[in-house]
From TrEMBL:
This is Beta-glucuronidase. The gene is uidA. Residues 187-277 form the Glycoside hydrolase family 2 immunoglobulin-like beta-sandwich domain. It holds the Pfam family Glyco_hydro_2_N. Residues 19-184 form the Glycosyl hydrolases family 2 sugar binding domain. It comes from Candidatus Eisenbergiella intestinigallinarum.
Length: 551
């Protein structure tokens, strides 16, 4: 069984998926004794916290909120007797950042990377028709050898502290749904779809990966459950007559049903929903279904009161209603892949996603590097940790694309956020990341990265790799704010003139801009932090945007 299997768990005639969410036993490993005292067999104490959720914000104790190190979870789960003969696993939506899973005292899985799912195979570790115990050790320490980048500092009192090279809190724990799943020994491991149009018809090219040699039947149904197309074989084409395209604001989805057949008997069955659409970059335009789309939206975070970065279905619903209310059609998953349920919602709502891997903090002197205060000039991509970091980054890109490749809402991949790009040492690293994204994405979506302010037209050595440029720009806020806003506008225009002179013939979008604002702050004349200044700032930015024909 592949531990990186990315198919979202479903119920079918052959598959089972049982939620393990709820109150789990929980303990912080203050003395780093969990391994030595065999907590894998059972977590001490009676403390319990909700899963999924970040652990930090449940408590009033600062020492808990700032805790860095191992935390341990435990719960019991029942495995039905009729599951004997099937493959059984525990699927974690994520565990932030490094994890070991023990079932009945035996290690079932280990995983690095805090924002993508993984499986813990337990077929041979569980008792059937009985309760079993799972213990999960999660470590939230940051490192320069994996993304997101950071380090862990030991204070003089011996306690550890996370030092992120990014500007958001290091929420951690079991932050996404956990499911107990079962499927047949011979089963569907993965599937892929790509689309093209032939007049009013759509051609849906598909491939299905299975663990056996039996025939595969693929069927497509429209929203009214009417048959739309069918084909046999592990590879093929579904011709959909008069296809209803998935589009911005029109999240029309077809049901795809995949079955492994032994004669007339289904061996395995998996169902999903797909949208029929194309996406490409042509000149200075991003095209969805061959038509130019102007991206309007936000860089979000998974972040809410009490549960931190834990998946919250109510907050998700509210966020999408706010997106529609304000007229947005797109968001970037800044700065990590989000919970799968959010992509499913975007599919249904017709909202576009720029899907971002957790490659944030790749800047030698931006946040917490010691060299920043010493004045010593160093390059992030010359560090001795880069080979390990690159291997992890490549794996995360591959896993993200494997997970999200069939979502019609996903129109592009963002492969870094605000990395260091002004040194030649960055180029080979970037080339490998961009090549891997193109290699593993069957739809060959556009690729980009969000550029920090010093990655300008005359300084960025990696921008040519992008299919479209993504600029994070804060003229008038982090630089030349307040009364200097007139100089900010002039500097902004000077940079944009520089991009125009490069004649890259690529779309340009602004993935970040804005001014922090207090909801209660009103001032005339405007001052920074007031709502009036925010309006003034946005009007300035939009004047600049509208002066250029990049996009």
């Amino acid at each position: 069984m592949r531990t990186c299997q990315m198919l979202y768990p479903v119920e079918s005639s052959t598959r089972r998926s049982v939620s393990m969410d709820g109150m789990w036993k929980f303990s912080l490993d203050w003395k780093q004794e969990g391994e030595g005292k065999d907590w894998k067999n059972g977590v001490p104490g009676e403390e319990r916290i909700p899963v999924p959720a970040s652990f930090q914000d449940f408590y009033t104790d600062k020492e808990i909120r700032e805790y860095t190190g191992d935390v341990w979870y435990e719960t019991d789960f029942f495995v039905p007797g009729e599951w004997q003969g099937k493959e059984v696993a525990i699927r974690f939506g994520s565990a932030t950042h490094c994890v070991c899973v023990y079932v009945n005292g035996v290690q079932a899985a280990a995983h690095e990377g805090g924002f993508l799912p993984f499986l813990a195979p337990v077929t041979d570790l569980v008792e059937y028709n009985a309760f079993n115990k799972v213990v999960v050790k999660v470590n939230n320490e940051l490192s320069e050898t994996r993304i997101p980048c950071g380090t862990t500092k030991v204070l003089k009192n011996g306690k550890k502290m996370s030092k992120p090279y990014f500007d958001f809190f290091n929420y951690s724990g079991l932050q996404r749904p956990v499911k107990l799943v079962a499927w047949p020994k011979e089963h569907i491991e993965d599937y892929t779809v790509t689309c093209e149009f032939d007049g009013a018809d759509a051609l849906v090219h598909y491939t299905v990966e299975t663990t056996g040699e039996h025939e595969v039947l693929v069927e497509l149904y429209d929203r009214e459950h009417r048959p739309a197309a069918s084909a046999a074989g592990k590879e093929g084409v579904l011709r959909v007559s008069d296809a209803h395209k998935w589009d911005v604001g029109d999240g029309y989805l077809y049901e795809i049903r995949l079955r492994i057949m032994d004669g007339d008997v289904p061996v395995d069955e998996y169902t999903d929903r797909i949208g029929i659409r194309t996406v490409e970059v042509k000149g200075r335009d991003i095209l969805v279904n061959g038509r130019k789309v102007y991206l309007k939206g936000f860089g979000k975070h998974e972040d809410s009161d009490i549960v931190g970065r834990g998946f919250n279905i109510g907050v998700m619903k509210r966020d999408f209603e706010c997106l529609k209310w304000i007229g947005a059609n797109c968001f970037r998953t800044s700065h990590y892949p989000y919970s799968e349920e959010i992509y499913q919602m975007a599919d249904r709502e017709g909202i576009l996603i720029i899907d971002e891997v957790a490659a944030v903090g790749m800047f030698r002197s931006l946040m917490n590097f010691a060299e920043a205060s010493s004045g010593k000039k160093t390059s992030f991509f010359e560090a001795s940790t880069v080979p390990q970091l690159l291997a992890h980054h490549l794996q995360c890109v591959e896993d993200m694309i494997c997970r999200d490749k069939n979502h019609p809402s996903v129109i592009a991949w963002s492969l870094f956020n605000e990395p260091e790009t002004t040194e030649d040492s960055a180029v080979p690293y970037f080339e490998k990341i961009f090549a891997r994204a193109r290699e593993v994405d069957p739809q060959k979506r556009p690729r980009t990265f969000a550029m920090i302010g010093n990655s300008g037209p005359d300084t960025c050595k990696c921008c040519q790799l992008c299919d479209f440029l993504s600029l994070n720009r804060y003229y008038g806020w982090y630089m030349m704010g307040g009364y200097e806003i007139s100089d900010a506008e002039e500097a902004f225009r000077e940079e944009m003139d520089g991009w125009a002179k490069k004649q890259m013939n690529k779309p340009v979008i602004f993935t970040e801009y804005g001014a922090d604002t207090s909801p209660a702050e009103h001032k005339l004349p405007s001052v920074m932090w007031s709502q009036e200044y925010q309006v003034e700032y946005l009007e300035m930015c939009h004047r600049v945007f509208d002066s250029y024909d990049f996009y």
